Amino acid sequence: MTRRLLSIVFAILCIPAIVAADTFRVIVNRDNPVTTLKKAQVSKLLLKTQTTWSNGNKVMPVDLRATSKVRDAMSRSIHGRSAAVIKNWWNQQIFAGKGVPPPERATDAMVIAYVLSNPGAVGYVSTEANTSDVKVVVVKE
């Protein structure tokens, strides 16, 4: 009985992560050689704690608006925290003079346009977005 209960609890806890991963895709410029990234790497790129790619290009992250459901799903999956918590973290960084957040774009199309025009860009879009002009990166644990 205990094993079955633990299995049920584990399954319930995993559902949000599975759902979140199915709501967004991480994208980079087509010229970026990266094809896979770990979640921790994506987090560092989007939080600007990693500022260059392995090829030396400057990382240029971009976010959807803080009120976006896709941003919240990405944030929970990649950073392990809600978009609101990450937004507060950025406010603290600004106040302390330690940095500014990535630019925000209102739509998937605007994020894609940013990634297309910046070789070092990294962002994320909903799974419904047309990503044919950018490279979708496989994100691993």
Q: Describe it for me?
A:
- The chain is an alpha/beta fold.
- It contains 5 helices and 7 strands.
- About 9% of the residues have low confidence.
Structure summary:
This protein is α/β, with parallel strands linked by helices and 141 residues long. Helix content is 43%, strand content 18%.
What is the helix content? 40-55%
Order of helices and strands: HEEHEEHHEHEE
Uncertain runs are 9-20
C-alpha geometry:
globular
**How large, in whole angstroms, is the Cα Rg?**
16 Å
Report the sheet-strand fraction.
15-25%
User: In oligomeric terms, what are we looking at?
Assistant: single chain
Q: Taking all residues together, what is the mean pLDDT?
A: 88
Number of strands: 7
Classify the secondary structure makeup into a structural class. Answer: alpha/beta
Summarize the biggest pleated sheet.
5 strands, mixed
Output the strand order for the largest sheet.
2-7-1-6-3
Number of helices: 5
| First-to-last CA distance | 30 Å
